[in-house]
Amino acid sequence: MTNPTLFIVGCPRSGTTLLLRMLDAHPRIAIIDETEWFVSWFEKRSGVTPEGFVLPELVTRLLQKETSAIFRGADLQIRPEELYGVVGSGREIQFADFVARLFNRYGEVRGKPLVGTKNPDYVRKLATLHSLWPRARFVHIIRDGRDVSLSLMKWRKIKGKERTKTVGRFATWAEDPVTTAALLWEWHVRLGREAGSALGPGLYYEIRYEALVDRPEAECQALCEFLDVPYDDAMLRFNEGRERDDADLDAKHAWRPVTTGLRDWRTQMPVEDVARFEAVAGGLLDELGYPRADQEPAAEALEHAARLRARFGGLPLPEKW
Question: pTM score, two decimals?
Answer without folding.
Answer: 0.90
